[in-house]
């Protein structure tokens, strides 16, 4: 059966990973959350107290970063392993979220992540979500989606997720983080977040997860014919 790559880009917390995971399960493809790599790299530098502004220190440490993914059969997700340690539970908090876009704007960091992402996708059969998948990582992906939802819906979705493990978190903190990341991600010099010319825009503000899956499955089926 023909295999394709599916690139899913868009703003933070609009449901990219959710649809990517659903699709990968249906199609028996590999799902890669590329943001997890930038989050793990951010964790590495924060642990070493190296600021995103300290480019020299980042250059000299970058060869010490080794990332790979391991499949968690319980969550049905590929989780990121940083230098031998599964860091999935350490990379979703607000501290990482507040720092990640600054590190993700650095050329050396993007080079490391993109090379690994491209190698994972070379044999097709990958659904990857992120910010530059359709424009930079897989410019030849057979299906490209650009997802969006209103800021209010996105804030509410992410707030509900985070408050379960961080009960003190406020909606305002979440909203501010999403707004700041979207701004930095869209305005950075290297591979800014933008819609690929051949991407299909999907606003899922008013769609349930089942509705969005049904819509995207139709798009995939067209590409597989
Ligand atoms: O899930 P959420 O939308 O909160 O973000 P994420 O996908 O985990 O990505 C975290 C951050 O990593 C983004 O805000 C970007 O700064 C960066 N990122 C990127 O630059 N390029 C990608 N392909 C994926 C993520
Ligand atoms: O990957 P991204 O940051 O774009 O978003 P996500 O982590 O896939 O989704 C953020 C939250 O929105 C999750 O808790 C999803 O369950 C929820 N969601 C939803 O409620 N309705 C949708 N149509 C899509 C996602």
UniProtKB/TrEMBL annotation:
GO terms for biological process: nucleobase-containing small molecule interconversion; pyrimidine nucleotide metabolic process. It comes from the Bacteria. Its EC number is 2.7.4.25. One of its GO terms (cellular component) is cytosol. The keyword Transferase applies. SUPFAM superfamilies: P-loop containing nucleoside triphosphate hydrolases. Signal peptide: none annotated. Gene3D superfamilies: P-loop containing nucleotide triphosphate hydrolases (3.40.50.300). It catalyses: dCMP + ATP = dCDP + ADP; CMP + ATP = CDP + ADP. GO terms for molecular function: ATP binding; CMP kinase activity; dCMP kinase activity. It holds the Pfam family Cytidylate_kin. Its main location: cytoplasm. Keywords: ATP-binding, Cytoplasm, Kinase, Nucleotide-binding, Transferase. It is an enzyme of class 2 (transferase). ATP binds at residues 10-18. Residues 6-220 form the Cytidylate kinase domain. It is found in: Cytoplasm. Belongs to the cytidylate kinase family. Type 1 subfamily. This is Cytidylate kinase. It comes from Rhizosphaericola mali. The gene is cmk.
